[in-house]
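Internal tracking record. Fields below are filled automatically when a chain is submitted to the structure queue. Please do not edit lines marked as system-generated. If the sequence contains nonstandard residues, flag them in the REMARKS field before resubmitting.
Queue: standard
Priority: normal
Entity type: single polypeptide chain
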Amino acid sequence: MGVPKFYRWLSERYPQINVVLSDNSLLPEFDNMYLDMNGIIHACTHPNEDTASNTLTMREMMLAIFRYIDRMVSEIAKPKKILFMAIDGCAPRAKMNQQRTRRFRAAQDRLESMEKARQAGQEVDETNTFDSNCITPGTEFMEQVGKHIRWFIRKKIKDDPIWRNLEVVFSGHDVPGEGEHKIMQF
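SYSTEM-GENERATED OUTPUT FOLLOWS
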């Protein structure tokens, strides 16, 4: 699990760490790229937390994830050797209580958001609102995400010369451990 708001804290205290590059030729070369996919999945499945009535379809979510990954790999980092993508699997027992509390709170926040939307006169279809708690190892949603990402990897290796020369490793939700731990073990 990442450190919430760490990048923002770091950027505010040390603003010179952020440099806007106007020319892609100034980007350094990378041999390896490691992606902890949970942040990407969250950002692409429910980009507007407070909007209860704005729900994306599964297709829109997957396309957003694909675009995000492809942009990182093909346009920004352009790794030369290894691309390792990891999704959080089952957490250690010690972390499960923390996750349970956070997921319970997320469910309460979602209900409050839907109620606010109703009070503002918006029409809310409860059956179609996205519950971010489904981004949990072992859920049907994560099974679908894993299948789609595996398909995307095969397609990119087949069609894209940048991907073709990479060793691509994907560790899905069905492999125990958190994404960052899987990356460090690799």
